[in-house]
Design brief:
The chain is built from 3 helices and 3 strands. By secondary structure, the chain is α+β, with helices and mostly antiparallel strands. It has one domain: Hypothetical protein (Metal Transport, Frataxin, Chain A, 2-Layer Sandwich), CATH 3.30.920.30. A 3-stranded antiparallel sheet has the order 1-2-3. The radius of gyration is 11 Å and the shape is globular. About 20% of the residues are buried. The model has no long low-confidence stretch (mean pLDDT about 95).
C-alpha cells in the first residue's frame, strides 16, 4: 500500500470538491468546512498536512486511500 503524500490543505480541498462531490460550506480562520450533505469535514489550510491528519479526513469522508491516490 503506497504512502499518502504530504500535500497542502488547499490541494486536499481542490481534490475533494472536484472529484468527490464536496462543496465549501464556510471558512473560519485557517480551517475550511466542507460538506456533501451527508458528512461534514474540517480541513486545515496548512502548507503541508501530516499523513495522519489526511488519513483522518479521508476516513471521515468515507474515501479509501486508493481512491484518493488516483487523483493526486
Amino acid at each position: 500500500m503506497p504512502k499518502l503524500p504530504r500535500i497542502s490543505g488547499v490541494e486536499v480541498i481542490k481534490i475533494l470538491t472536484k472529484f468527490f462531490g464536496f462543496r465549501t460550506l464556510r471558512q473560519r480562520g485557517s480551517h475550511v468546512t466542507l460538506t456533501n450533505d451527508l458528512v461534514f469535514l474540517t480541513v486545515p489550510l496548512h502548507p503541508e498536512l501530516d499523513r495522519g491528519t489526511l488519513l483522518a479526513i479521508l476516513r471521515d469522508a468515507h474515501i479509501s486511500r486508493e481512491d484518493f491516490l488516483e487523483y493526486v
